[in-house]
Structure prediction request, 149 residues.
Amino acid sequence: MNDQKSSGTIGLIAAIAAAVAITFALVVVLVQPAQAQQPQTQSNNLEVTPKMAAMTVRQRCSNCHAIAPDVNRFAPPLVGLIGRKAGSFQGFAYSDKIKNLDMTWTAAALNDWLAGTTFKTPDIRQRHVGIAHPELRKAVVAHIATLQN
Ligand code: HEC
Prediction:
């Protein structure tokens, strides 16, 4: 009888120990990665690389704009953009605002467009995508300048 009782107590202790161990393991697994990520999210000096710029263009622009030559999508291609007259890609129906801009895309103009500083125009088709981070924006402009026919 006594033996049975003590083995029941041992079983209970073992079960509690196991529960504590599992909880501890979960806390370690769930909390560690969050702590490991903190230094990254707190860091302000993001180092912008050309690869990051290319990826940004793929993710933020290429849904609408073709980044391969002579492809017409929902928006005019970014290939050959630098040096092209604004609103002049054949076969794309631009809004009047862009057609009437009467300017040629330069790196500086594209930088302004993406910063939203000089093209806050209510009558383009939609509020256009911008890139707030100045270094990333510069790298994105440099990447787009390499996209040529
Ligand atoms: C949601 C779709 C969409 C996304 C995403 C988008 N654009 Fe556009 N973009 C357009 C449309 C539509 C136009 C044409 C607007 C018009 O005619 O009023 C345009 C026009 C432009 C023009 C003028 C083109 C010309 O031939 O004069 C530039 C430059 C431009 N976008 C750059 C970019 C860049 C760089 C990105 C990524 C950071 C981007 N866009 C993301 C839809 C988009």
Remarks:
- Confidence is low (pLDDT under 50) at residues 26-43.
- The first helix runs from residue 2 to 42.
- Residues 1-43 form one domain.
- The CA atoms of residues 29 and 123 lie 51 Å apart.
